[in-house]
Fold:
Amino acid sequence: MSEIKIFSGDSHVSEPGDLWVKRIDKDLQFRAPRIEQRERNGRMEDMFIYEGFAPHPVGVGVGAAGRGGAGTSTFREEGKGYADALPGGWDPVARISDMDLDGVEGEIIHTTLGFRLFWLTDPKLQRACFRVYNDWLAEYCSHSPQRLIGVPLISLCDVEEARAELRRSAKLGLHGAMVWLSPPAEYPQYSSTHYDSFWAEAEELQMPIVMHEITGGAESRLSPSSYWDPNLSLAAMIRAHEPQRTIAQLIMSGVCERFPALTFISAESGTDWVPWFVSRVKRARGGMTSFGNKLTLEPIDYFYRNIAFTYINEAHAVENRDLLGVDNLMFATDYPHSASTWPKSQEIVDRDTAGMAPELARKLIRDNVMRIFSLPAPVLV
Structure:
């Protein structure tokens, strides 16, 4: 086992099924997202009920409990849910025990059920749901605030409201900000200066921007559990289009130029497409762009300065580290999701870093995360 403890760049909670029903504003309670038992494929399953979309089976989000090792879970296929899940998803005491078992020093903690709440079309409902989640997440992480690093959900439907919630989240002890992977069609795209005051707030607070799969308004909605979408069969081929487009917009429209200290993280959108994408970024040129802004650097310079990626069980990401950027990659356990490397994360990083200089291995599995999120070293007790 590696002597270097892991600091996961992308792990998750399993929100209590009644979280929003219990905590949301009274006037919105009847619309609150919730877990219900529903029949599907001839059996009863835990389903996430949220406004405007078909019920979502939760097995993919709590599937690490079915693991015999990385890549072996059949939890989702068996239609299992919270009763069979690892309690560490909602119980921080149990989580710390699971982290210790897996050789994990700390984790950047993201939502599970909240991904699909980025799809809500009512800004008031979305903001209320996000506030509830952020409050609960801060309570959860307060059990071990140097090891459990919670990332708040921020609605960009109203930029001034978003800035206020970002400041509130920072005061709660949360880090970073998860936003749309790309805005829905009815909102300005990230190439617009519309969001500049929010980017400025995040840069000042040293809170990196997380753009996670599933949270966007386009191809990322084709998740494995979007069984109701007729385009689901296209997912494996086109889901990378959305992070590619967003990163290109952030670079070419001058967002990275204007906010040089702000990091944008592509989380769990894969890395196999990144080498090809880097070759295309290198083809682009600085100077005046079609957006009316001037880039003082070459696009590839912004890519290596402002863009970061998480990777899970992806040996190719490590193999291509020089092309992707050794300062841009963050290993992730994805606990407790079905793609998680738990409880064999140390085996995965040992495989990937065999023969690697220790200082480089530390970057990939620990130090990059801590630098990007401006974290002090945890005190293990």
